[in-house]
Amino acid sequence: MKFIGYTRSNGTVGVRNHLLILSTVACANNPVRNIAQQLTGAVPITHQNGCGHLPREAERVHRTLVGYGSNPNVGACIVVGLGCEVIQTKKVAEEIAQTGKSVACILIQESGGTINATAEGVRIGREMLSELSKQQREEHDISDLILALECGGSDAASGITANPAIGVASDLLVKQGGTSVLSETQELIGAENLLAERAVNKKVAEDIINIVKRAEQSSLNFGVDIRSTNPGPGNKEGGITTLEEKSIGAAHKGGNAVIQEVVEYAVKPSKKGLIIMDTPGTDVDSVTGILAGGAQVCVFSTGRGTPVGAPIAPVIKIVSNTQTYHSMKENIDINAGKIIDGFCTVQDIGKEIFNEIIEVCNGKMTKAEQLGCGEFAIYRDSPTQ
Amino acid sequence: MAEKTQDAIIISDKDNVATALKNLAKGTKVLARGDILTMEVNLKDDIKFGHKFALYDILSGSDIIKYGAVIGRASQDIKKGEHAHLHNIEGARGRGDKK
Fold first, then answer.
1. ipTM passes above 0.90
2. Between chains, do B91 and A155 touch, taking CB under 8 Å as contact?
3. Which pLDDT tens digit goes with each residue over A43-76?
4. Of A134, A166, A188, which one is at a domain's C-terminal end?
5. Chain A stretch 183-202, residues whose beta carbon is closer than 8 A to a beta carbon of chain B
6. Which of A119, A158, A332, B21 could be disulfide-bonded to A319 (CB atoms 3.0-4.6 Å)?
7. B83 has a chain A CB within 8 A of its CB
8. Do A242 and B1 touch (CB under 8 A)?
9. What whole-number distance in Å separates Cα of residue A97 and Cα of residue A93?
10. What is the CATH classification number for the domain harbouring A59?
């Protein structure tokens, strides 16, 4: 099957053509916002990271920023930093430029302050917008797609309707040569043995067991019952009792495909097919990591309802029950509650999700895009110094 | 999978709990349906949409099975038809509080 997208010189294909204004450090957030405000359609990324990180975390933040700028949905990128921070802005810009896209680097200390940095960014960005506007979509095979699988605000119906239906769509994509990324390791606790049985080889099976062990140990280290945070209050209100129950329901998003590889947070898969990325159980952090790993589109199940989107990729929201569909219709793209209502099967909704993925990749806006919902957060696990 | 007449779903025939597909009232007889198994259960509690009730009498300490897999264990005896949730089920994983 085919879709139409933006051909990138490194062989990847974008389903959007964004101009990204990327801050590398909290100190650069102001000019990033200012530059984007002046440029129609430009996407600003601001965040609290960039300095004072311990080495392992500095590497993860750096990798995430480079991955985000390198995402095929980004047509051109302006990287803005201060000049003295731990995350080296010039290095981030150089690594993004290796994808072949147009990249500029602005350092506030070199520009001589906020006003000059902003002006420089607006001048460069306007020319970039002009170039991006001339690019046309071309036909590509869906084996070029990387799909992010996510859930947030789950209820007990998520594991019966929305997640298995997403699994059907994921299996359809994988069967046709595409790639699907299952994530949120904490929410695989209790489902790891079922997943390890589906690993392509012993090494991948061990990787699955090991990342789950690591996630569980990090919770044990705090000396609390994991249920004090996960399942969250809304999950419990929705009928989910234990983390194991939530995990097995969540793992349904990965369908029945063979698991080809386990990758670290924000690392691009080297294989096609079903992949597991080791991300935290927080949806925004998790989606950011998968997009930094090259995914162009995301399907996201919810039971309680959530508006969460992503700044650079369409997020297709699938709700597990009809009640939430009606109460939050403006945030939901597909109602899998029709399965419980008796109007459709899991297979039917799975096919509907698959068709929606293709339409959205061709350019149809998701509800999250229409409303400008675009959240960004990098996974952190150690203190700044 | 689901049909309109269904009150609750038994996801796997190995399960000892069912999930309510609508708000169900205490004292009513409800139909819980799986792929093979169909059971009538007299509810001893109100069961909200998405919440679970016991399909059999479950002894304290026994595994709670849903999706054909262990999702926790009973922290007290649970009678057939009783609400099965935080008050009588505990998770076995990620229990830093038990170290």
1. yes
2. no
3. 999 999 999 999 999 999 999 999 999 999 999 9
4. A134
5. 189-191, 194
6. A332
7. no
8. no
9. 6
10. 3.40.50
